[in-house]
Amino acid sequence: xxxxxxxxxxxxxxxxxxxxxxxxxxxxxxxxxxxxxxxxxxxxxxxxxxxxxxxxxxxxxxxxxxxxxxxxxxxxxxxxxxxxxxxxxxxxxxxxxxxxxxxxxxxxxxxxxxxxxxxxxxxxxxxxxxxxxxxxxxxxxxxxxxxxxxxxxxxxxxxxxxxxxxxxxxxxxxxxxxxxxxxxxxxxxxxxxxxxxxxxxxxxxxxxxxxxxxxxxxxxxxxxxxxxxxxxxxxxxxxxxxxxxxxxxxxxxxxxxxxxxxxxxxxxxxxxxxxxxxxxxxxxxxxxxxxxxxxxxxxxxxxxxxxxxxxxxxxxxxxxxxxxxxxxxxxxxxxxxxxxxxxxxxxxxxxxxxxxxxxxxxxxxxxxxxxxxxxxxxxxxxxxxxxxxxxxxxxxxxxxxxxxxxxxxxxxxxxxxxxxxxxxxxxxxxxxxxxxxxxxxxxxxxxxxxxxxxxxxxxxxxxxxxxxxxxxxxxxxxxxxxxxxxxxxxxxxxxxxxxxxxxxxxxxxxxxxxxxxxxxxxxxxxxxxxxxxxxxxxxxxxxxxxxxxxxxxxxxxxxxxxxxxxxxxxxxxxxxxxxxxxxxxxxxxxxxxxxxxxxxxxxxxxx
Length: 607
Known about the structure:
By secondary structure, the chain is an alpha/beta fold.
């Protein structure tokens, strides 16, 4: 039975979304075809579609009834997470042929690395790349010749963008195929320690680069629990992966076998068969609630307070930050994965992984079991782990007990009773804070503000010793309208140094931190943003600010008459609008919605 609070929140999402969701479902029902999609095309259109195919594939596409499977890939060989995808199309093509159909690469989507662009101008394209990926996915599928699609993507903006694009073709079955995390390298807490020492000038750049290279050392996703790995958990708990697929390392027999199995399922769930399972029906209100519960239970990335809202809107579903906050109140934290602990995702997987988490949450009624999934049946099938048996994938029940209680715990003994994500309200508007990695005594910080308009200004002030005090560092004009809402990871080492010196420190920003949100309390995604007339633009150096992650408040301790008389600060953002491709995104900055409605060009005006 579903927990009453989970059901109440789900019911209000259903009621709120009904007009848009009903219209969406009507559209995908009208687009369904029980005959191969290509049959609706003219002869010249079809001939263009199979002109370059091998003779056997051409015969299937010309006269046969076999399904045509589109592959949308984010492959590139610079990104460690996406490099393994190079050979996936060959595996998928072979599996599709064995199932009597054909698979073709329908198109590619861009895949940028936030780890490479951190602190650089390219980071200002990062969030917008999600919407570019959605558009690119739509272009890839626009030929209307495919009966289903598989999606090869793993990292931060790539998976949300692929989901948004796939939902625009919601009548098609869609299976997401992960590539897995790299094997464990230098422990994440050691990497963090060396970064902090470098910020203090105690180790050299060469020593820092050596530590980073030992952390990020091979094919696969980075092993910390940031947005990329949160994506993979989420695709599993929302039913778009095969069970247990998320965290199998690349270039292993089990990884390849899961890719074959995923292709077989995509071919089996088209409208031509008896198990039609389109993505538009899988991703309903219950699936999104399951995704948010999974986010909280695993201490996942705050980026998903943006992405899930935008993804849901693509399916005609309206999520709000209140939904996130209320679900966090009833969801216990079951994992400790860096930055919420010292373990990495390989340790988490070895301890029981997503199958264990799903079983525990289902046992407490915190997930909807009666959902559609690409595997068939309900979510109970995902309380499992895959293994190779005579070269084939077989699923076995998830372990009954955690293999490492310092990394993963059951519902009876959580790390904390709530998910550790709060929505903050106050005179500045709304913000999000992730407290799961913050010590309880730092959940409430009250200190004078220091105002900055870039993270470079913060770093300069830190090096000059100007931040050696209790302080709330405010970094504004970092929202989506201002400069694309970059992640501000380079703030974490200096702020961590200040905190370790004993100062009471917090961050307030209309920018992002994502999966790197760590031990320093940070009120992020402040909306309205400074560039949109938000009250954060009224702050001045010395204003007392209270960041209250316990009770959900962001308070300005300034006399009401003084605050009312304040004018909004301005900033010259021209340098952020040119170079590194930023001039091409002027239309995005103009059209983008607010953070609480997904920070997307597709959701402006969403209530």
